[in-house]
Amino acid sequence: MTDKINLYALSKSELTDFIVALGYPKFRASQVWDWLYTQYATDFEAMTNLPASLRQALAEKTRIGILTLSAQQSSHDGTTKRLYQLPDGQLIESVLMPYDDDRRTACISTQAGCAMGCVFCATGQMGFARHLSAHEIIEQAMRFAAMLHADGERLSNVVLMGMGEPFHNYEESIKAVRCLMDDLNIGARHITISTVGLVPQIRRFADEGLQVRLAISLHAATDDERSALLPINKRWNLSQLMDACRYYIQKTGRRVTFEWALINGKTDTPDQAHALGKLLRGMLCHVNAIPLNPTAGYDGNPSHPSNAQEFAHILASYGVEMTIRVRRGIDIDAGCGQLKSSIIKRQRIAIESITQE
Questions:
Q1: Active-site residue among 107, 179, 285, 336?
Q2: Residues 27 and 125 grouped into a single domain
Q3: Distances (CA, A) of 35 to 40, 62, 110, 325
Q4: Per-residue pLDDT reduced to its tens digit, 191-247
Q5: Is it the case that residue 338 has pLDDT exceeding 60?
Q6: Which of 63, 82, 106 is the last residue of a domain?
Q7: Mean pLDDT, rounded, of the chain
Q8: Which residue out of 93, 136, 139, 172 is catalytically annotated?
Q9: CB 164 within 8 A of CB 140
């Protein structure tokens, strides 16, 4: 099984070379490609316009993806959270979020674990395991696209906002983004990359010439407070981060989204709102705020709605727009890294109970 070729890892030209090497004409590769990326086939027998001999050869020599579904949770709001196991045993998460305006957004991971160490993030609390390849990133979106296709719907948006820091895995993340655009036909403006603030990569991303959206996990408006929440701020402070964001805006003409976790008594205070307003005043940007998703490793609580509204009102006085997002999948482990953490915890408890018998 492990030595089979993963078709998602092949470019169209590589797939063509492979099909020709099997002794079939080039147009058969286009048919296979269509089954993978338009029909979202996950079974070779479904590829009915291919000769039986080619279907058999594909089944013997290749596989459609490498992810194994380990767990799935569904929320009353329609959110679906999946935990996948990779061939080396690593676990990654992805989330599908349906919205009333018919958007279907996949939130996908770019790393197994994360090295950034953000204190309120379940993924950051578990540490870094390894980078994902572009095809491991893409397959998460493919799985949701196939699920939606079976119901007569389509995947409309993708955010690289799951486990991991996309810009820490820059090359593979950008390669995955290009595949999302070219192979899954998801428009660049329907793709978002979220970063905690790796300044050199933000500047590099600005020079890519992509119309992909950029989101910055900000969460605090002073260096002392941000460094306490996001250790990366000790490497690149707010002044350096804001300079990189302005460079991105100047190069692309696109606004930056700043993500802000509303933590009761910490990041939702009037003082923080005024500090943030002064930091962002005059910048082409938008603040995307969400009440904290509590995790076992952090004792903060989500902001009260009245505090969130006051925060938004203060920002507006500086000309900074803010949207207060509704937390999705709050009745399941939908926050980044939460499902993996709960599964690992249950496995650890089970192992301990066995060893104590």
A1: 336
A2: no
A3: 6, 14, 25, 37
A4: 999 999 999 999 999 999 999 999 999 999 999 999 998 999 999 999 999 999 999
A5: no
A6: 63
A7: 90
A8: 93
A9: no
Based on the domain organization, do 140 and 247 belong to the same domain?
A: no
The reply to whether 190 falls in a domain is no
Domain hosting residue 287, numbered range: 196-326
Rounded Cα–Cα distance for residues 85 and 46 (Å): 25
Structure tokens at 226: 């941000």
Paired with 285 in beta bridges are 256
Contacts of residue 67, defined as CB under 8 A and 6 or more positions apart, other chains included, come to 84, 85, 86, 92, 136, 139, 140, 143
93 is catalytic: yes
Cα 272 from Cα 187, distance rounded (Å): 35
- Output the domain CATH number for residue 312: 3.20.20.70
> For residue 351, is it within any domain?
no
In this model, does residue 155 exceed pLDDT 80?
A: yes
Partners of 130 in the β-ladder = 112
For residue 352, is pLDDT > 60? no
Annotation marks residue 245 as catalytic: no
In terms of domains, do 76 and 118 share one? yes
Q: Are residues 322 and 294 in the same domain?
A: yes
Residue 142 CA to residue 184 CA, distance in Å, equals 8
Task: List the structure tokens of 229.
Answer: 């929440």
